[in-house]
Amino acid sequence: MNAHHFLAPKTAPWATTVDVNAYTSVVDIFHQAVAEHADRPAFSNFGQTISFAEVDRKSLAVAAYFQTELGLVKGDRVALMLPNIMAFPVVMFGILRAGLVQVNVNPMYTARELKHQLKDADCQTIVVFSGVSDTLEEVLDETPVNNVIIANLGDATNGRMLSPPMNLRFAHNKTVADMIAVGEGLAFTEPAISADDLIYLQYTGGTTGLSKGAALSHGNMVSNIMMYEAVASEVTTPGKDIIITALPLYHIFALMLNCISYFKFGGLNVLITNPRDMPGFVAEMAKWKFTAISGVNTLYNGLLHTPGFADLDFDHLKIAWGGGAAIQRVVSDKWLQHTGQHIKEGYGLSETSPVLTLNPISDKRFTETVGYPMPNTELSLRDDDGAVAAEGEAGEIWARGPQVMQGYWRNEEATASVMSEDGFFKTGDVAIYTQDGYYKIVDRKKDMAIVSGFNVYPTEVENIIAELPDIVEAAVIGMPDAKTGEAIKAFCVRTGTSLNGSDVQDYCRENLAKYKVPKQVEFVDELPKSTVGKILRRELRKL
User: Fold this and answer.
1) Do 370 and 291 fall into the same domain?
2) pLDDT digits over 262-274, tens only?
3) Do 360 and 342 contact (CB within 8 A), yes or no?
4) In terms of domains, do 459 and 435 share one?
5) Does residue 204 lie in a domain region?
6) pTM
7) Prior bond to 89 cis, omega within 30?
8) Nearest-10 Cα torsion for 50, 53, 58, 62
9) Strands (E), 98-229
10) What CATH number did the domain enclosing 96 receive?
11) Which distant-in-sequence residues (6+ apart) come within 8 Å of 171 by Cβ?
12) Same domain for 349 and 379
């Protein structure tokens, strides 16, 4: 049995290969999009909209400022610590045009997390949101940073929006608005950028200790954008699409799919700065005839429970992509009731730029899988020894393709631990291969529980619990147990108090083998989540 036994024999409804070398860099994609769509709206945020031509002009000024005023040279790292505000895409394209490497920083980071990332990436320059600059101030002296640029809400718009007052401790530093104003009068020399040059350091969630920077190249990103374009061509129309961008742009999913891909398509990104304000989020959606949206299960579930969502106009919606964590059937079924279509689940990682698989748009079912491999992408299911898993057995997904990272930034040991000799990336995710050629994730390797020698995958149990009408969310972990080695514990968020632990256990017993039934059920007000909406099971172990 060869290593490619598990490549899908069923034909995906897209080409097996696409030209992933159609562009040398993301900057080339940028220039083409600006030339083709100059007068069209590119980004909207808090009632302000800027065109492709304005993004071009302002990002050029940013690039000139970095290069001429700050003396940054190709390959230098610039940290971007922003939520979804107008400054994000404008500064980002400036960073890329100057040949610099963008370090995507979560604005919700603690000072400790921020210090690690700035030191690890060796960043001398950071562009930070005014609302979180206090975090930077705590650790600034312990980092390599000597250039601080403040981004306010109104920066990079057309100047008609009031901004909150800038943090006074950084009053001597420039704002993004200052960068643009000064940069417009500076010379700029466009550097030569190759496919192998780095574009992003995308730090992983750090589930196993300190976070690591996945080093992504222009070629990695271009290839994934070209793959996505091939897969999504039936639901994209050049210059006509409006995508709701609520997932954070510092996360590679929204950055590749929403921001850069839809920029390439001449589409409009509606930037949602605070999706946790669900009523405000729904009110913003009501203003647009949006054609696409991306999200995670928790975001879709939140929308579905927000007053006013059911009244939105979904006549123009062509696609809703889901990723980051499993989309639950109960959530997708409710989405179907309101919008007329299921959420299309895909799968990927920071290390893979990020998309490895997507469900076909033409398949109108909810498949409970992550679909087919993208073009130019090989997947193989492996056992713990690295051998191809037996047919029908679960195995770790190994992936090979042009979207796989260059390695972890300055961390050869970590890189070697996840790369095989023949160029496969070991994802750490366990999947089975279905009869119709789809891949179904059964869970993270490290999240699997073993009860009396039987493997229990939390996602399966969580999906069953979520079917109960009074359950809002559920998360499951394995806890030490003297009798069975591990026992399943469920943490549940409920509406009201009529549902009790016995009800949850009884329903699980009806639908699951005995060893999968939670031995303990604890009700909590909320589940710990990352800023992207992933439930953090490791945090549950501390409760």
Assistant:
1) yes
2) 999 999 999 999 9
3) no
4) no
5) no
6) 0.87
7) no
8) 130
9) 101-104, 125-129, 147-151, 174-175, 198-203, 213-217
10) 3.40.50.980
11) none
12) yes
Helix axes 52-64, 87-97, angle to 10 degrees: 60
Q: Within a domain: residue 534?
A: yes
281 and 229 co-located in one domain? yes
Split into its structural domains, the chain has a count of: 3
DSSP letter at 461 equals H
- Clarify whether residues 235 and 186 are in a common domain: no
Residue type, 448: M
Within-domain flag for 8: no
Q: Is the distance from CB of 75 to CB of 100 less than 8 angstroms? A: yes
Are 459 and 327 part of one and the same domain?
Answer: no
Q: What pLDDT, in 10s, does the model give residues 405-451?
A: 999 999 999 999 999 999 999 999 999 999 889 999 997 777 878 88
Do 162 and 227 fall into the same domain? Answer: no
CB 488 within 8 A of CB 454: no
Could you give the angle at the alpha carbon of 432 between the alpha carbons of 430 and 437, nearest 5°?
135
Q: Which two structure tokens, joined as six digits, stand for 53?
A: 């031509």
Same domain, 107 and 157: yes
459: closest CA among 481, 469, 472, 444?
A: 444
CATH number at residue 269: 3.40.50.12780
399 in a structural domain: yes
β-pairing verdict for 174-175 and 147-151: parallel
Strand partners, 474: 492
Residue ranges for the chain with pLDDT beneath 50: 1-9, 160-165, 168, 206-209
Domain residues for the domain of 426 are 219-444
Closest CA to 132 of 116, 109, 101, 164: 109
Residue whose tokens read 């505000």: 85
Residues 6+ apart with CB under 8 A from 267: 236, 239, 240, 241, 242, 243, 291, 292
Strand 268-271 to strand 41-45: parallel, antiparallel, or no bridges (unpaired)?
A: parallel
Distance CA(470)–CA(465), nearest Å, equals 10
